[in-house]
Amino acid sequence: MFNYILRRLLIMIPTLLGITLVVFVIINLAPGSPVEQKIQQLRFGGMGSTGGSVADAGSSKDNAVSEEVVEALKKQYGFDKPLHIRYFIWLKNLARLDFGESFTYEEPAIDIIVSKFPVSLQFGIISLIMTYLICIPLGIFKGIKNGTVFDLTSSVILSALYSIPGFMLGILLLVFFAGGNFLEWFPLGSLVSDGYDDLTLWEKVWDRIWHFVLPLASYMVGQFTVLTILMKNSLLDEIKKDYVRTARAKGLSEKKVYLKHATRNSLIPIVTGIGGFLSIFFAGSLLIETIFELDGMGLMSYRAVLERDYNILMASVFIQSFLMLVGNLISDIAYIIVDPRIDFS
Length: 345
Prior knowledge:
Largest sheet: none
CATH superfamily of the largest domain: MetI-like
CATH topology of the largest domain: MetI-like fold
Number of domains: 2
Strand content: under 5%
Number of strands: 0
CATH class of the largest domain: Mainly Alpha
Order of helices and strands: HHHHHHHHHHHHHHH
Structural class: mainly alpha
Shape: globular
Number of helices: 15
CATH architecture of the largest domain: Orthogonal Bundle
């Protein structure tokens, strides 16, 4: 087992290098670099200062950016060097955990990413815990009650929820439960109330729960359905196997057959997603965060793409890729914990 973990850790190095190389080349070859955007800003600024029409400003020498300025901008942003040299410089800085400065915010990229953690981290952790705590028991119960009215009714409800995109559900929830047109049970946006700092501890807890309900439901709607159905189908596959029939033949109760024997083996497909708990640090949805006015990872990544903030993009891609690879390793280890028969050596 130790040798397997060591091999996987060593494989992560070329994998991360490959991911970062591909992303680095793609985003640097895409049109609209930070230098070009800065030049456009200078030109628009020049137009504003001439006081003439847009057409006159476009042809005016006052709006032309000199070659010296362009070269200075390229040197400032590091674009005066060839692409492969820039990549090796980025790797050198990465060895010191230096992801560079954000072109947009003019602050260290890692500080910008960390500043967005609170929103995405809270929703990621809570949705992960609630999903597994609810979906696994619900899937087991649906498997036990397979074909009953409860199973059919819950399947219809889950299918309906799965067919609704998270952002669309968010809009509907806001309209019906927070917009004031129907009900006004929940706040419209943000994570806390205006007077949050003046509240007591329990009032703060309740205030956050109150603000979390609608966006959390939008985050969870898709994965909630998938995990429940997966758990049910996995359990139904297990109870058809010989060892379950043998347990029944020995006179064991249905409760022991399901919960003690079949459930443990049916959890094997479920642990595939256990390693994904690391990705909750980057959980985010652009549309959901926009609808509920949440400044999280999804909105940050979208703005970084639009503004060609390469350092934030590269830092985000590297950290997410690293967490994904570590999460996959944790999933493999979880396989062994659930089923000791699995051997990766």
